[in-house]
Amino acid sequence: QGEWMHIYLLSPSWKYGVLTAFCEYVLQTRLQAGQGYGNTLNCVLTVYRNESVAGFFKGMSFPLASIAVYSSVVFGVFSNTQRLLGQLRHGDASHAPALVDVALASTVAGFISVGIGTPVDLVKIRLQMQTQPYSTADVKLKPTVPGFPVYRGPIHCFRTVLQKEGIAGIYRGMGAMLLRDVPGYCLYFIPYTFFCGWITPDGCISPNPASIWLAGGVAGAISWGTATPMDVVKSRLQADGVYLNKYKGIIDCILQSYQNEGLKVFFRGITINAVRGFPTSSAMFLGYELTLKAMKRDQTETNP
């Protein structure tokens, strides 16, 4: 059960990953769900010009407060599912997992993560997008002036969405997030396992910190890069509803986005996603592996 607690010991690692990548979260959201941004540089300049430095950290408090719980659940589910599969398939929970075991554990982690991650992402995106201009309005909604804040903060945002849209509103975009995270976590943990084994010298029982850092970074870049198309759809669905309701669902969002902006719209923010994925994942995996080693060492010393 110790795997569930490891995240609390790696706070320097996840804080590094979050703080170094968070302004890229804002840029990614604006590029994918906003209007009027031609490219990343234009997005940076526009955000700075209109909102100063604070604009790059808008919506940060809620994800920062919940990242420890989210990460502990994801890595805990992944580790414990692997141990369970090892016990069921090989009679030994510590047996080296096969590729199919890693894939199954990744899939389970992806499903579980959506339950926590959807409300967090929704609040983050609503806070980041509430000052964006819209050219159309939904007459069914109570009129709100685009460009002016709707939500006073993360708690007010959560309560407002819950009151006006119910539980379905809090979990808006959940289907798209499932389609992003289930394959995304497979392309997160599987490449990490592969690269760790590939770059670890023969004869070594476990990878060294440098190997973990590099493998984690590469896995993060691959996962976030390939998840970008569905990440665009998820961001647009969750941003929808600040001032208007534009999309009826995943398919409608895909069709409208393609008709209005072409195929390239689904690759908006892919560079930011890949670049952000490297330091964040490096920090996460390094903290995860070092903490597990420390816990196993403590258990050995306690029960010689």
UniProtKB/TrEMBL annotation:
<feature type="repeat" description="Solcar">
    <location>
        <begin position="1"/>
        <end position="84"/>
    </location>
</feature>
<keyword id="KW-0999">Mitochondrion inner membrane</keyword>
<dbReference type="GO" id="GO:0022857">
    <property type="term" value="F:transmembrane transporter activity"/>
</dbReference>
<dbReference type="Pfam" id="PF00153">
    <property type="entry name" value="Mito_carr"/>
</dbReference>
<keyword id="KW-0496">Mitochondrion</keyword>
<dbReference type="GO" id="GO:0005743">
    <property type="term" value="C:mitochondrial inner membrane"/>
</dbReference>
<keyword id="KW-0813">Transport</keyword>
<feature type="transmembrane region" description="Helical">
    <location>
        <begin position="98"/>
        <end position="120"/>
    </location>
</feature>
<protein>
    <recommendedName>
        <fullName>Solute carrier family 25 member 48</fullName>
    </recommendedName>
</protein>
<feature type="transmembrane region" description="Helical">
    <location>
        <begin position="59"/>
        <end position="78"/>
    </location>
</feature>
<dbReference type="InterPro" id="IPR023395">
    <property type="entry name" value="MCP_dom_sf"/>
</dbReference>
<keyword id="KW-0812">Transmembrane</keyword>
<dbReference type="InterPro" id="IPR050567">
    <property type="entry name" value="Mitochondrial_Carrier"/>
</dbReference>
<comment type="similarity">
    <text>Belongs to the mitochondrial carrier (TC 2.A.29) family.</text>
</comment>
<keyword id="KW-0472">Membrane</keyword>
<dbReference type="InterPro" id="IPR018108">
    <property type="entry name" value="MCP_transmembrane"/>
</dbReference>
<feature type="repeat" description="Solcar">
    <location>
        <begin position="207"/>
        <end position="294"/>
    </location>
</feature>
<keyword id="KW-0677">Repeat</keyword>
<feature type="repeat" description="Solcar">
    <location>
        <begin position="97"/>
        <end position="198"/>
    </location>
</feature>
<keyword id="KW-1133">Transmembrane helix</keyword>
